[in-house]
Amino acid sequence: MPAPLISVSEAQERLFALGTAVATETVPLAAAAGRWLASDVCALRTQPYADLSAMDGYAVRFDDLPGPLRVIGESAAGRPFDGTCGAREAVRIFTGAALPSGTDSVLVQEEAARDGDSLTLSGDGPVRGGNIRRKGLDFTSGELLIAKGERLTAARLALAAIAGHGALTVARRLRVAVVASGDELVAPGASGAPDALPESNSVMLAALLADLPVDILPLGILPDRLDAIAAAFAAVDADILVTTGGASVGDHDLIRPALEAAGGTIDFWRIALRPGKPMLAGRLRGMTVLGLPGNPVSAFVTATVFLRPLIAHLSGARAAVPVLRTAILGAALPANDRRQDYLRAQTRDGRVYVAQRQDSSLLRTLAEADCLIARAPHAPAAGAGDSVEILALP
Ligand SMILES: Nc1nc2c(c(=O)[nH]1)N[C@H]1C(S)=C(S)[C@@H](COP(=O)(O)OP(=O)(O)OC[C@H]3O[C@@H](n4cnc5c(N)ncnc54)[C@H](O)[C@@H]3O)O[C@H]1N2
Ligand code: MOO
Hints:
Strand 20 and strand 21 form a beta hairpin. The model has no long low-confidence stretch (mean pLDDT about 95). The protein is α/β, with parallel strands linked by helices. About 20% of the residues lie in helices and about 30% in strands. This is Molybdopterin molybdenumtransferase.
């Protein structure tokens, strides 16, 4: 008698509870892209460090305009003017350069007429205090900029760099072992018997994790033999062991018994989810084991809903579960049953349309989808124009 189905959120919570966060390391900024921060990033400097010009032009005293003014020197980024500007004096200034003392506004060069050292206003001119980036406009030294548990995007890395950091403390990369199982499977591109099936899950999973800080250990294809699967499991050394196939109830679905034969434990099996119902999770030595269903779309959905969040969670992510967005439905949907549904859908003219065929073997509909419509268990029927929740696909 199979175990009852548990909800997606319960499965996520139980999965997260199976492992402990990985160790941290301090790495140069360039190696920190896409990692999760293990400690807060505070500003080590003030940005800008002083009042700076936002334009190329002339630093002036607003009350002296329209001139004429005498140009007494130059301030460039990295080479500030070290004197003081007096009445009816101006300093040639460039974008990013410190505003000389005595000046309060920047006149852009397009609105100035210069003749030797003499300068006069030739356009509208600045407002008082115009064209200046004030000291600390972006942040001041000591301010919290990026909190522990946030992911290091390109923008956050740039922020850390300009805040004075050359290295950051992040979760170490995770090792994710990926193995397929099934006697029918052959490597993609290999010539096989007519009933041989190209193994598509491993390449899909590797691509699905390509933006995450993980090292993938590809373990290939295992036959449908308990001893072979258990022996392979016993030899794996990783943080997460991901299997695909053999998770269901058939005589050749051997992941659960093989995990137990290798000394592992099953924490849960079977989720109120479509596609992806037979997913299982457990432990083997120090590893979290995730047994994804073999059907390619089921493997994709469970990897999206469980594997990617698990990696984020073990890396110390503050928010590990993907955020659903709201979209407008293009065509009616019937009421849902007890399983949480992730329906392949396409966005056209600002509305989402569910693919006609949703069988979990159909990779073509997955490849053509740009989002999954998430439907809660027992969601009532929905009509065109109603709001639905979607998970955008990369
Ligand atoms: N009597 C029942 N049968 C099934 C149930 C059930 O509840 N009772 N659940 C069905 C559901 S839902 C799913 S999903 C599948 C998942 O089964 P398995 O995880 O055991 O997967 P397999 O049987 O090994 O394979 C299913 C399907 O996918 C193909 N496959 C497997 N691995 C790969 C791969 N790496 N690349 C490409 N294709 C793969 C395999 O050839 C099968 O066609 O079970 C239902 N059955
Ligand atoms: O859950 Mo299966 O993944 O419905 O085909």
